[in-house]
Amino acid sequence: MIGAAKAASTRQYQLLATTTITSTGSQNATIPAGTLFMEIEMWGAGGGGAGDVVVGRTTYSQNGGAGGAYLKKTYQSSTLQSGDTLTFTVGAGGAGGAATSAGSAGADTTLSSPISLSAGAGGGAATSNAVGVSPPSGGSASGGDTNTSGSDGNGRPSNTVGGDGGDGANGGAGGDGGPASSSSGGGNGTVPGGGGGGAGVGGSLAEREGGDGANGKVIVKYYG
């Protein structure tokens, strides 16, 4: 009939299955039967905090590591088939620096097939006896419908207290910076993607480590 309105779609999609991947390294996920589209969430790993630095007779606290990025992508394709494989690499958190050592950067979390997605990792904190040294930058994401950068690592608030780790974007909290005490290593970041805290000063010429960054993560929801 001329002028008749098109009926609204009443199609209701159902969640068929969910895959959660927290183990680091290359991981595969298999698309279940009946899948029409997928919702993919990915987090990059956090960077490690720096270990304290001893210069002469003075010990200096350090900055925290940065948080990993987050992305979310809805993927729908007529080529999706039951049994097809999604190939992910889940990033490992960066190690906290030993005394006088920088924290390591985390590793990116990526999807290489059937599309390319990347949730970048947070940077590791460099060591310095200069209060003004810049903390590391949070990871950035690409390819998602939503791409959110991780938080930068935090600078140490004083020569004795370590800087907090940056939070993972939409994810885990950064580790606490080490306090000015006898047990002042930086706290570890929380999964997914929290950066490690920087070491505080642990007493007379004590050597303390930075906290470790947290691993990344992947969640895939299949709808049909």
Low-confidence stretches: 1-7
Strand content: 25-35%
Structural class: mainly beta
The overall number of domains is 1
The major β-sheet equals: 5 strands, antiparallel
What's the topology here?
Elements: E1 15-21, E2 25-30, E3 37-43, E4 53-55, E5 58-60, E6 70-76, E7 85-90, E8 109-113, E9 117-119, E10 141-142, E11 146-148, E12 217-223
Antiparallel strand pairs: 1-12, 2-7, 3-6, 3-12, 4-5, 6-11, 7-8, 8-9, 9-10
Can you put this structure into words, describing what you see?
- By secondary structure, the protein is mainly β.
- It has one domain (27-224).
- It is 0% helix and 26% strand.
- Strands 1-12-3-6-11 form a 5-stranded antiparallel β-sheet, with no helix packed on it.
- β8 (109-113) and β9 (117-119) form a beta hairpin.
- It is elongated and about 70 Å long.
- The model is unreliable at 1-7 (pLDDT under 50).
Keywords:
224 residues, mainly beta, five-stranded antiparallel sheet, elongated
Give a brief description.
Helix content is 0%, strand content 26%.
